[in-house]
Amino acid sequence: MTTEKGPWSAVQGPKGKAATDHGNPHTGVSAMSSVDPIEERATVGREEYVQKCSNSKPGPKPDPFRAQLRTMFADAMSDRTFATYYKAFRVPRNLYGLGIITEDEVSAMHTAARAAATRPNASFNTSAYARAMDEQAAWYIDERCPEDGGESDD
């Protein structure tokens, strides 16, 4: 070990305190290496300005509507099939949120897609439903959104 003096030498810990290394011997990671000297300097003698990590999980928050819909189809669909269904199910709402279609057209899209995806024996084809939703969305976007990004002529 070196005997250099300073706030973070190998012999002494922060601000001259005795260094104790309780690191993990299996990974070779030292406990002293996890201390951030910038954070330590920012908090000494004044209020703490460093934002602490919260205990929340990373990623988007769970959608309660998706969870409720998933319980309705728990026995009928696998997770992968439900993911396809839910992605297609959200398409009209996204268009409505952007102001491209009206509430009545949202209903019409769901009705038309369900009709296209229902087989003669009354079973439901999720891929056909997703395809029908995508086709209708493409048609509405093509009809209602100007190509140049400016105002439409109608």
Summarize the structure.
With 154 residues, the protein is an all-alpha fold.
Radius of gyration: 29 Å
Which structural class should the secondary elements be placed in?
mainly alpha
Distinct helical segment count: 5
Give the end-to-end Cα distance, rounded to a whole number of Å: 79 Å
- Major sheet details: none
Number of strands: 0
Order of helices and strands: HHHHH
Average residue pLDDT: 75
Low-confidence stretches: 8-13
| Global geometry | flat
Residue share in helix: 40-55%
Estimated share of beta-strand residues: under 5%
General description of the model:
- It is a single chain.
- This protein has 154 residues and is mainly alpha-helical.
- The chain has a domain at 76-143.
- 45% of the residues lie in helices and 0% in strands.
- It contains five helices and no strands.
- The chain has helices at 37-43, 64-72, 79-97, 103-117, 126-144.
- Helix 3 (79-97) packs antiparallel against helix 4 and helix 4 (103-117) runs antiparallel to helix 5 (126-144).
- The longest helix is centred in the middle third of the chain and has 19 residues, at 79-97.
- It is flat, with a radius of gyration of 29 Å.
- Mean pLDDT is 75; it is low at 8-13.
Structure keywords:
154 residues; mainly alpha; 5 helices; flat
List the helices and strands and how they pair.
Blueprint lengths: L36 H7 L20 H9 L6 H19 L5 H15 L8 H19 L10
